[in-house]
Amino acid sequence: MKRIKRYLLIYRECIRVAFASATTYRLNFFLNCIIMLLGDIVFPLITVLIYNSGAGFEGWSVYEVLLIQSIFTMSTALADMTFNGILWATMFAVREGNLEMALILPVDTMFILMARTFSIDAVGLFIGGFTIFTVSCINLPAPGIFMWLKAGALFITGLCVMMGIALFMAATSFKWVGNSRIPEIFESIKGFGKYPNNIFPKTVCIITSYLFPVAMIGYYPAAVLLGKEGSASFIVLIPCLLFLAAGILMYRYMVRLYQGVGG
Amino acid sequence: MKYIIHQLRIMKEVALVTYKEWSAYRTHSMVSIFVGPVYFIVQYFIWTAVYGGREQLNGMDLTQVIAYFGASTLIGYLTMDFADWNLQMLIHTGRFLTFALRPIHHRFFAFSQKLGHRFLGLIFEFIPCYFIFTLLFGIDITPKHVGWTLLSILLAFLMTFYIHYILGMTAFWFVQSSGIRRVFDLLSGIFSGVFIPLVFFPEGLQKALFFLPFPYMTYVPVMVYTGNFVLAGITMPIPVIVGLQAIAVAVVMLISEIIYRASMRRFNGVGA
After folding, report:
1. How many CA atoms lie within 13 A of A60 on its CB side?
2. How many Cα neighbours within 13 Å face the side chain of B55?
3. Are residues A38 and B27, on separate chains, in Cβ contact within 8 Å?
4. Are A125 and A76 a contacting pair, CB within 8 Å?
5. Are strands B234-236 and B60-61 parallel, antiparallel or unpaired?
6. What span, in angstroms and rounded, lies between the C-alpha atoms of B115 and B81?
7. Contact at 8 Å (CB) between A157 and A237?
8. Best residue of A49, A180, A187 to probe chain B, by most B CBs closer than 10 Å
């Protein structure tokens, strides 16, 4: 209990530092917010353009697809704020050979790297995602309380998948030192999670639901909220949690292998 | 004549050195062998679902759209540019001063670097992905008019370079121009047709795009590649649109020269 309290205090301090930094570099923060917001409205824009041309995904209205993409955007924003920074922090530390500075601290290395890279830059992105989410919800039949609770649980699980991806990427950077294109590899796979699952062949659905469960980031929470997926979809929680556990184990394993060769 | 041969020799040497330098990081380029096809597969499924049983959407059929994304990915590997980042870094750190003193125009040097870097892209990105698209996915992405396609890609190569160089030159005024570059990258992604063919945009916007540099960087070469150019309801013969692209490149080159001269008058070696 004492340990958890200490970690929470550390995290609170890191958040405070992030806010202080954003306040100091206000223009940079403001620009980053706008750019991130604009950057992530590209996918909803494509969806709107497709539907405006009279086409669309069979069985899915424009607001239903926007709901998936807005949930994906909010999940990305929260991941960027809380744990995605671990990739760049790890990659930089390994390349420069100064990961030791984190290793000698009397706290968990993975935790401190995540906490130190807490960033509020993605708040604009979250607001953008939330706005699209609200607009979609207004234009769709209202879900019941139970559906909201189920969707909330799946959304949190989607965040676990995001964390697993961030940890896998960070772990890769221990061996593939300085390759700034590592995120592109994972980002390309995440593309499958931004659209309705039924547009993909069954094999792809199985992969994106059970092996590399990116469908949990946007599709499943939205589908549950829309009543398109029943309680059976909760079985996907297991591979998602296993994915996160594998990410944590992989990252810890790579930390143990680290020999300080950079610099 | 002697001057041209000398310049070509410099270009060859700079390109060769850049090629060798980046060859050490070839896996960096080879990431595209995974990313390109995965991105393409996603687009394939999205557009197959969008078309459903439809013959055409905005004047394009499904085969054309699939070929569009394949060609767009491949052409991107040939025209990709980071002259803006490089120039901004040189100005920011003051290292541009050493280039200002050299008996070689920095833009020419940067262009030669791009030639070497993109030759690497041709070998480690374009060729493998071309074979993956054609042999593995069975997509027909053979250029319909090889000569015009090559010319259009060359013009897109120049357009991308000059536009990015102009963006890099904004650092002479702002020192840190990363925000401007990021905004431009985003706009160029949307309006050059990387994410969606431009025929899906509202017609008024499509007309306006004729007067902006974005379509000449991706959309025009891709449409020339697929053998049929349409924008804002206007169907143009391939030689005409390539000619228009050449005019657009000439205008951008002129603007680049004007800004370069203004930059040189302003440059005071800040950061050195």
Report:
1. 30
2. 1
3. no
4. yes
5. unpaired
6. 10
7. yes
8. A49
Tens digits of residue pLDDT in A22-55: 888 777 777 777 777 777 777 788 899 999 988 8
Among candidates A39, A45, A188 on the partner chain, residue whose Cβ is nearest the Cβ of B38: A188
Residues B133/B141, Cβ–Cβ less than 8 Å = yes
Which residues in B lie closer than 8 A to residue A204 (C-beta atoms)? 45
CA gyration radius for chain A? 19
Q: What pLDDT, in 10s, does the model give residues A13-22?
A: 999 998 888 8
State which H helix or E strand residue B229 sits in. strand B229-231
Residue B180 CB neighbour total at 10 angstroms: 18
Rounded Cα gap, residues A21 and A37, in angstroms: 20
φ/ψ (deg, to 5) at A172: -60, -35
* Two structure tokens written together for A10: 């550390």
Residue given tokens 């000569």 in the structure block: B147
- Is A179 close to B50, i.e. CB distance below 8 A? no
Written as one letter, the residue type at B141 is I
- Give how far the C-alpha of residue A8 lies from the chain's centroid of Cα atoms, to the nearest Å: 21
What interface predicted TM-score (ipTM) does this complex get? 0.86
